[in-house]
Write a structure and sequence with these properties.
The chain is mostly helical and 294 residues long. It is built from ten helices and two strands, in the order E-E-H-H-H-H-H-H-H-H-H-H. A two-stranded antiparallel ribbon has the order 1-2.
Length: 294
Amino acid sequence: SKSKKNKEPQYYISKINTQLLNYNVYYMSKKEKLMYYTIAFVAGGVIGLIFYGGLFKNDGVETLATHISNIVVFVLVGFIGLKVFIPNITEKLRKKRIRTLKLQFKDFLLALGNSISGGMNFNDALASSYNDLNMQYSSDSYIVKETYEILKGIENNVSFEEMMQNLGERSGDSDIYNFATVFNICVRSGGNLKETIKRTVDIIASKISMSEEIETSLTSNKTQLLVMEFIPIILVSMMRLMSSDFNESFSSVLGVVAMTACVIILIIAAVVSMMTGNSESTVVIIVVIVMNAI
C-alpha cells in the first residue's frame, strides 16, 4: 500500500528551541472542528433535502419510505458537504491568517523604518519596533510573537537575517519572504544596511498597502458571487414551500432527473465563476431551474 503524503507540521522548532507557527498550513482547533464540521454537515443535509426531499409519496402523503429516504439523503449529502466545505473553509482560514500576518508585518516594517530614520542602530530600532507593536497589538498577536522570537534569537547569538529568513519561509507570503531575502543579500554583500532597509521597507510596505486596496475592491465581487451561488437553492426552497404542485413535481421521477441536471449545472457554473471571477455565469442556473420547475 502506498504511504500517505506527509503533511507539513503545524509548528517548527527554532534554533533557540521554541515552537514557531507554520503559516503555510492551517489545522483547526477542536472548537473550530466542532463548529465548522457541524455547519458543513447540516448545510449539506439541508441542501440535499431541498433538492431531493419528499420522495416516494403516495398521492401526496408521506410514507415510511419518504421518511427513510429523507434521512438517507440528509446523511449522505451531509457527508458530501463535509468533503466539499471543510477543505474550502480551511483554505479560507489559512489565507485569512496569512493576510493578518501580512498587514501586521507592514506595521513592523514602518516602525522599523521610522526608528532607523530617527538615527537608531539596527538592534535598538528592532527593540523600539517591538515596543511600538506591543502598544498597537495584543501580546498574542502574530507579529508581536514573531518580533519577540527575533529579539530572543539575537540575544542567543542567532542573527536577525537567520530569524527573518525562517519567518519568510514559514509565513506563506511572498512580501515577507522577499524582505528576508533582500536583507540577507545586503548583509552578505556588505552594502549600506541602513539605506537598504529604509528603501526596502518603503517599497514592500507600499506594495502591501496596494495589495490590501485591491483585495478590498474585490470583496464586493466575492460577496456578489456568493449570493448568486445561493439564489438557485433559495428559489427551489421558495417553490417547494409556496406551492404543493411544485413540491409534487420535484418529487416525481421527472422532477428528480431535472433537479439532478440542475445540480450538475450549479456545480459547473460555481466552478467556472470561481475560476473566472464572473458571477454572471450562475444566472444560467436560475433560468434552468425556473424552466424545469414550471
